[in-house]
Automatic annotation (TrEMBL):
Protein name: Alpha/beta hydrolase
Pfam families assigned to the protein according to its UniProt record, in alphabetical order: Abhydrolase_1 (PF00561)
Record's keyword terms, sorted: Hydrolase
Organism annotation: Spirosoma agri
Gene Ontology molecular-function annotations: hydrolase activity
InterPro entries the record matches: AB_hydrolase_1, AB_hydrolase_fold
PANTHER family with a match to the protein in the record: ESTERASE-RELATED (PTHR43039)
C-alpha cells in the first residue's frame, strides 16, 4: 500500500483473515461510525475502513470538484483503494449512499467483488409516479437550501432525525458532531449527489449477490425502498431488522452484525 493512498483516504486495516471486507461510510460521516460492527469481523476477515475525501481524517487537499461532480468519482475512490491494496473477492459493506457508490464500483470492476452488503440503501430519495422514495422534491430542495444558508442549523435538526432513537439523544449528537466536522463545501456538493441522485436503472446491472439491510422504521429510506430494490436487483436478499432510524450500524449494531453474519454463513455453506 503506498503511503499516498493510505494518507489520502486515512485507510485502516485490521483483522486476522485474508478475505477483505471493506466498510464504506455514509454522507457526512467517517469510518468511526463502523466501530461497533467492523470489529466483529476481525477474527475471520481482513477488515478495511477508510474516509472519503473531506470526511474524517482524509485529505481535504485531494478534493477535486469536477471528479466529485457525480457518485462515479466516489466509486473511483473505492476502486483506487482496491487497486492499491490489491484486493480481490471483496465483501463491500456500504451505508446509505455508499451502497450506491459500491454498486457503481462493482459494475465497473465486477471481478474484484464477491458480494455487496447495503445498509439502509436508497437508489432515489424522491417520490415519483409508481415509486416511493420517501420525500417530495420540494422537501429535498428545501433541505438543501437550508444546508446552504445555515449548515449548523441543518445539522442540528437532521442529526437526530436521521438517527431517530429519541430515548438515546447521544446518538443524534454524535451525528451532529460528524456533520459539523465534515468540510462544508464538500458536504454541500455530496448532499446534492446523495439526495437528488437516481440510480434505479443501475440496480439491474449488478452482477454480484446483494444483501439489503433495512430498518423497520427509517424516515430517510423507508421499507418500500428496500422492497423496490429487492424487486430490481437480480440476486438479492432483503433483511428487515427491528431497528429504528437510518443508521442501524450505530443504533442497533448487534442486529446489524447478526444480519451480516447470518447472510455470509448461509451463502458460504
Amino acid at each position: 500500500m503506498t503511503q499516498t493512498i493510505r494518507n489520502r483516504y486515512n485507510i485502516t486495516v485490521t483483522g486476522k483473515g485474508t478475505q477483505p471486507i471493506l466498510f464504506a461510510h455514509g454522507f457526512g460521516c467517517d469510518q468511526h461510525m463502523w466501530r461497533y460492527v467492523a470489529t466483529a469481523f476481525e477474527a475471520h476477515y481482513q477488515v478495511i475502513r477508510f474516509d472519503y475525501i473531506g470526511h474524517g481524517k482524509a485529505s481535504r487537499e485531494a478534493y477535486n470538484r469536477e471528479r466529485y461532480a457525480s457518485l462515479q468519482g466516489y466509486a473511483q475512490d473505492v476502486l483506487d483503494i482496491c487497486q492499491d491494496l490489491d484486493l480481490e473477492q471483496i465483501i463491500f459493506v456500504g451505508h446509505s449512499v455508499s451502497s450506491m457508490i459500491g454498486l457503481l464500483a462493482s459494475i465497473q470492476e465486477p471481478d474484484r467483488f464477491e458480494r455487496l452488503i447495503m445498509v439502509s440503501p436508497s437508489p432515489h430519495y424522491i417520490n415519483e409516479e409508481g415509486y416511493t422514495g420517501g420525500f417530495e422534491r420540494a422537501d429535498i430542495e428545501e433541505l438543501l437550501d437550508t444546508m446552504d444558508s445555515n449548515f449548523f442549523g441543518w445539522a442540528t435538526v437532521m442529526g437526530p432525525a436521521i438517527m431517530a432513537n429519541k430515548e438515546r439523544p447521544e446518538l443524534g449528537q454524535e451525528l451532529i458532531h460528524s456533520f459539523c466536522a465534515t468540510d462544508q463545501a464538500i458536504a454541500q456538493q455530496f448532499a446534492r449527489l446523495t439526495f437528488l441522485g437516481d440510480n434505479r436503472l443501475d440496480l439491474a446491472k449488478i452482477g454480484r449477490p446483494v444483501l439489503i439491510i433495512q430498518s423497520i422504521a427509517d424516515d430517510i429510506a423507508p421499507v418500500a425502498v428496500g422492497e423496490y430494490m429487492a424487486q430490481h436487483i437480480p440476486h438479492n436478499t432483503l433483511r428487515v431488522i427491528q431497528a429504528q432510524g437510518h443508521s442501524p450500524h450505530v443504533s442497533a449494531p448487534a442486529e446489524t452484525i447478526a444480519a451480516i453474519q447470518h447472510y455470509l454463513q448461509a451463502t458460504n455453506s
